[in-house]
């Protein structure tokens, strides 16, 4: 019997997957360039978007990548935080300072940028770009990461941040669950399954339903990974997982190919949503984690996409807003964006800005806030980069 591999400190495959998920959302939001007064143009054809043949799944179903984000977060947080919180090695203050320092600086920055950009856009057009609720009430909600707690009318300001607002709520639930159970695996697994089922089938508020369901399903997936990675037949289980994941993605492709595009999960198409979200995504996460645990640092070269996933996720809408404000003054029509060249230019700028933001703004701001609020008690805290 071979010895179990040493525990990994970072899963590069999951970093890369998180980065791909962030870009999938950007492709999904490419339709923003075909919206006038909050409605898609009558002439809009999804299949006419640039490089559709290559990125059709992102254009058609990229919105579901947010659910993949939630599952990845659940897996990572149960992996790196659950035991430390349960053992009281990480206090509530420590935990929320870590999360605040990671998420809030860029959120505040993009919120202010969008405030200025939307004001300029409204002055020129008498309406806002894409998200219409940009008033004082929604600004305050956004300021406190509360843009999706059922106090809002709809998406506002930097709209994609709605999922981060939900994650902040999930952190509170996660911390409470870990403390209550003292991180006992069997109790955590039971509560995770229960919360996941409640999210998918009982909670009626869609943002919270999606967050609860996928986050705690991701946590359950982590414990399955932990069990398999220590099993003497782990290599055989890994091979099986790869085969099952491949078959599931093939089935998902057929399922999506036979259904109409969706803007959001709907009861009439529940299987089209639940199968990939509740079955395929966690299976994919499990498979990639098992593969890397068995084979070493897979996907290390593209793991930087995970490092900048939060940046690209929060920056892509402000960049779209900048494009629609600036291009007319340069004599360039928005229709020109619906081309391969337009897509490549936008993506190149987005990735470059994300790299700069991550290295020269987010990391320094994160270190500064943690040095103030955590020092000198930070040596025992988990150290990793995640969304």
Question: Would you mind describing this structure in some detail?
Answer:
It is a single chain. This protein is mostly helical. The protein has one domain (12-373). It is 66% helix and 1% strand. The chain has a two-stranded antiparallel ribbon. α1 (12-28) runs antiparallel to α11 (270-295). The chain starts with 11 loop residues before the first helix and ends in a 14-residue tail after the last helix.
Topology:
Elements: H1 12-28, E1 35-36, E2 39-40, H2 52-61, H3 65-80, H4 82-86, H5 92-125, H6 136-143, H7 162-181, H8 185-201, H9 206-229, H10 234-257, H11 270-295, H12 304-307, H13 309-326, H14 340-373
Antiparallel strand pairs: 1-2
Helix pairs in contact: 1-2, 1-3, 1-11, 1-13, 3-9, 3-11, 5-7, 5-13, 5-14, 7-9, 8-9, 9-11, 10-11, 13-14
From N to C, what is the helix and strand string?
HEEHHHHHHHHHHHHH
Spatially, the strands of the biggest sheet line up as 1-2
- Count of DSSP H/I helices: 14
Extended strand count: 2
Question: What's the short version?
Answer:
The protein has 387 residues and is mainly alpha-helical. It has helices at residues 12-28, 52-61, 65-80, 82-86, 92-125, 136-143, 162-181, 185-201, 206-229, 234-257, 270-295, 304-307, 309-326, 340-373, and strands at 35-36, 39-40.
Summary tags:
387 residues; 2 strands; mainly alpha; 66% helix; single chain; disordered C terminus
């Amino acid at each position: 019997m071979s010895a179990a591999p040493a525990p990994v400190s970072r899963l590069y495959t999951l970093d890369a997957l998180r980065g791909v998920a962030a870009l999938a959302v950007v492709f999904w939001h490419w339709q923003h360039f075909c919206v006038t007064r909050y409605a898609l143009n009558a002439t809009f054809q999804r299949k006419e978007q640039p490089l559709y043949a290559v990125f059709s799944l992102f254009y058609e179903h990229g919105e579901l990548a947010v659910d993949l984000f939630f599952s990845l977060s659940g897996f990572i947080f149960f992996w790196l935080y659950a035991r430390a919180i349960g053992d009281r090695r990480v206090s509530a203050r420590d935990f929320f300072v870590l999360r605040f320092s990671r998420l809030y600086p860029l959120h505040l920055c993009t919120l202010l940028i969008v405030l200025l950009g939307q004001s300029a856009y409204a002055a020129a057009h008498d309406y806002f770009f894409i998200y219409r609720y940009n008033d004082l009430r929604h600004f305050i909600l956004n300021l406190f990461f509360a843009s999706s707690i059922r106090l809002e009318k709809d998406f506002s300001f930097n709209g994609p941040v709605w999922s981060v607002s939900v994650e902040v709520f999930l952190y509170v639930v996660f911390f409470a669950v870990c403390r209550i159970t003292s991180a006992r695996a069997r109790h955590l697994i039971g509560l995770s399954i229960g919360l996941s089922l409640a999210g998918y089938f009982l909670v009626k508020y869609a943002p919270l339903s999606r967050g609860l369901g996928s986050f705690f399903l991701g946590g359950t997936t982590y414990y399955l990974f932990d069990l398999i990675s220590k099993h003497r037949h782990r290599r055989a289980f890994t091979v099986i997982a790869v085969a099952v994941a491949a078959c599931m993605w093939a089935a998902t492709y057929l399922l999506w190919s036979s259904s109409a595009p969706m803007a959001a999960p709907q009861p009439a198409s529940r299987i089209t949503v639940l199968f990939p979200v509740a079955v395929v995504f966690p299976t994919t996460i499990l498979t990639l984690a098992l593969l890397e645990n068995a084979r070493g640092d897979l996907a290390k070269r593209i793991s930087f996409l995970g490092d900048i996933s939060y940046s690209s996720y929060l920056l892509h809408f402000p960049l779209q807003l900048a494009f629609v404000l600036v291009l007319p003054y340069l004599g360039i029509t928005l229709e020109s964006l619906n081309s391969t060249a337009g897509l490549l230019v936008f993506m190149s700028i987005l990735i470059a800005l994300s790299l700069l933001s991550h290295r020269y703004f987010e990391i320094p701001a994160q270190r500064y806030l943690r040095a103030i609020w955590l020092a000198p008690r930070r040596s025992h805290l988990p150290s990793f980069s995640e969304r």
